[in-house]
Please model this.
Amino acid sequence: MKKILITGAAGFLGSHLCDRFLNEGYYVIGMDNFITGDQKNIEHLNNNPNFQFIKHDVTEFVKIEGTLDYILHFASPASPIDYLKIPIQTLKVGSLGTHNLLGLAKAKKARILIASTSEVYGDPLVHPQSEDYYGNVNAIGPRGVYDEAKRFMESITMAYHRFHGLETRIVRIFNTYGPRMRLNDGRVIPAFMGQALRGEDLTVFGDGSQTRSFCYVDDQVEGIYRLLLSDYSYPINIGNPHEITINDFAKEIVKLTGTNQKIVYKELPVDDPMQRQPDISLAKKILNWEPKITREKGLQATYNYFKSLTKEELCRSEHKKFENHIRK
Ligand code: NAD
Ligand code: UDP
Model:
């Protein structure tokens, strides 16, 4: 039985990856410190004999007993309001955390895949974004803590690959959504759906002309799974190229939820990228992968999930949980 360590296991993507690898017959070790994750995302795995959970902050030395075949490093705050609230932890998990996991991979002779992001392209001057574009990132802006941590992460991963001959994989994830996202994490899909469910206005930032391209989680997990098992060591974009302005997207959510909410406009956050669309030619060629799930279908599944939350969960303020970590 192959053994895989998944960091960020209690988060949105990490928990779906745990499910996928368990379904594929792997022994899964999940690791998380819950800074932005939730125990609820993995509680269905509590009695699974092939799943083990370790509560640990990966910026500290990571110790795993026995053999290990694969590592997926997904621990990191991922939403702009998260990494603005916990900037140092964001930098540390991308840098020190990645260094620890690369060291572990080297010691265990394991293959490691790291979760990079479309944010390495910053506010892109090239459209759509292909892997050979070096990006347009403001290192010292508020988003820089995330973008630069991820760029460092890619850099140190390639160094371990070149210098130590480690088997490494790098996925550049474009906006991905689905069940188990935190309702109040500030990302646009949970934000709009939460607002619709609470009867609040939908808040569009800026004039809403900025674009994004949203990928449903099952498609993303399939891409990551194929990349891990491929022999390709350079970064690959995984995302859905179907691009939409945030304005049109807000209208789509109003229609989907049938809630007739008003759309109001708020200030655009600093360095908010104006356009984003993955060029997925490489993923098609190397992994024979492309997304299959339409936005209509994916959004409906996500909305059904949010509708199933309790009233308490719907109205909970998220940021109290950070205070404990910040005081440490
Ligand atoms: P998430 O916040 O739901 O999950 C991240 C998980 O990492 C959380 O459970 C959190 O508690 C854990 N974590 C953070 N710091 C840690 C530390 N020091 N030690 C141990 N655990 C720690 O976010 P997500 O959307 O699931 O994102 C997962 C990964 O994918 C991140 O690396 C993110 O940068 C990347 N990514 C996601 C998207 C997306 O659209 N969802 C896009 C690009 C990249
Ligand atoms: N956004 C918005 N209203 C919200 C939350 C986000 O208009 O309540 C916008 C945000 O400014 C950005 C886009 O939606 O242009 C996507 O934001 P998200 O935080 O989901 O992801 P990212 O900016 O990292 O792509």
Summary: Residues 123 and 271 are 7 Å apart (CA to CA). The chain has one domain: 3-322.
